[in-house]
Specification:
This protein has 22 helices and 16 strands. The chain is of the alpha+beta class. It has five domains: about 60 residues; about 130 residues, 2-Layer Sandwich (Beta-Lactamase), CATH 3.30.450; about 120 residues, Beta-Lactamase, CATH 3.30.450.40; about 130 residues, Reverse transcriptase/Diguanylate cyclase domain (Alpha-Beta Plaits, 2-Layer Sandwich), CATH 3.30.70.270; about 90 residues, PucR C-terminal helix-turn-helix domain (Arc Repressor Mutant, subunit A). A six-stranded antiparallel β-sheet has the order 3-2-1-6-5-4. Helix 16 links the parallel strand 15 and strand 16. The radius of gyration is 49 Å and the shape is elongated. The N and C termini lie far apart (about 155 Å). About 0% of the residues have low confidence.
Length: about 625
Amino acid sequence: MDAHDDSPAMTLLRLLAQGAPAAELEAVVPGTAATDDAAAAQAADEARELALRVRAAFDSRRRREAELTGLVETARDLAAMRDPSGILEAIVRRARALLGTDVSYLTLFDPEAGDTFMRATDGSVSAEFQEVRLSLGDGLGGLVASTRKPYWSADYLHDHRFQHTGTIDSAVGDEGLVSICGTPLLVEDEFVGVLFAANRSPRPFSPDQVALLGSLAALAAVSIVQTRSAEEVRRHTAGVERAAAAHDRFAELVLAGGGVDDITKALGDLLGGWVVLLSSEGELLSTHGSAPLPDDGNAGALARSRAVRETDSTGRLAHDPGTDQWAIGVKAPQTPLGTLVLGGVGILDDADRRTVERASVVTALVLLFERTAAEAEQRVRTDLVADLVSGRGDPTSLATRARAQGIDPTAPHAVLVAHADPDTPRRTLLLAAHAAAGQGSVVGEHDGHVVALLPSQDPHEAAAELARRLSRLATVTVGAAGPTTLGADLPAVWREAVRTVSALVSLGLAGTGASAGHLGFAGLVVGSAPDVSGYVAQHLGPLLDYDARRGSELVKTLQAYFDAGGSPRHAATDLHVHVNTVSQRLERISALLGPHWQRPDDALELQLALRLMRLQVNRLSAGGSPTR
């Protein structure tokens, strides 16, 4: 063939070799009129068609190579990124460049809301569009999300294959989008989101463009999931390290002899909030930070909070979103020791939760240590109290042991016996009574009773105060006797206190505190040395003093009134006076004793006092001594 052959076939070959575009190839053979030879014209047309097909194949291969190069570069760029937001921006930017569209954007699946939300855009100018959310099934993107298949439309707003909503159509219209293509982001069976490419003119998407967008979506989905997994691993590792560091700090505090105050402070510093430690009875043991407690430190409201109730029920870390409070039980095996409550910390991640759980365990150890030490000290106190109230041991040795406990054996002491309802463990009552008794006191056990020896000249007041302090624990009754020194008569005084607390319970006075002298005639029964004269003076003293000063007969009239069954007329007959005289004397008695002396309980006390006074007079007449 001649090198200067100008035949159409050779011209087409030269143009193909030079990479000429299809338009130049079309111009080589204008049509069958270019030659008179019909066969030659047909051959020229065939050559042109073949050249155009070769050109199209070259263009397709070049485009495919460019797309593959773009995908490889995208994969390389995504693999080098660690920031999830940067990955999403890179995906939409590369999708827009490779497909040559006006806009590209990406929505992510929200498993809690059950929809997808706009996460990244490139080429978008509408704020409304950039904030739109798509429910599954709504719009083109919602259909892609629900079916997990790609969809595209050359004219979305007029395409009735999709379920249009006012919100979505408004956002699409505000952005000016006409043609849209969306493909799902999938990793195996996990749906991640939807990748979109869109134009502001009615341009259809070719199968190659849909396939390219699908390839980009596959790369994007894998990158997003891998980045999330890597981030989760990083957070988990950092959390484990942070929790381990917290555990080490707690352990160092314990080894250094730190107490619960050190634990609550360390936990508050680690999490940046306030911390409160409650006892198993709901009392405040320790606090750090600005805890929601009243000025008097009463933790009752906090102990009744929702988070505390939940952890008491489940035994696990509990959260109350309404108050942003967290709570976890502090306990040894089968033994509740208290509750840690914290707030002002927001949402705790796994590492923070492990830190709280470690703090709970370490706090339990510290409380067990403290309880063991307290029980050891309590055994020493119990042995001392038991020896004192039973009269065992050498007096000098007992006095030395008492002084070692901070007690003056020569000072007057009230002897108190505390009795709680059956649901209250005696050990709990013992420790609570020790805490409530105060300095200079000693509390122990003897013969099944909790016994307290308090420096006091007023046993009745001491008993009432101790019962009041212990009322937060349970219904506690306190019987008192004394005062006495820690000497030989202490056993008898202790037995009187035991009888007094039993009398209080029997009389329906549980939850109160009193001494025998304040029980009226019942005190005469339970007291070890009944003060008859004192009892008579307590109830009849005003009348006796009046009779002694005025020479009247009020006591005699009162006796006659009771003997006559409360009839002034019959009393007047027995006294040989006018009934008006009796009425006047009864008015004077009311003025001296008070208006309620005729109530059954008060009248009984007065009649008993009159009977005891008569017995004293008879004893003196017989030559005996008055009963104390």
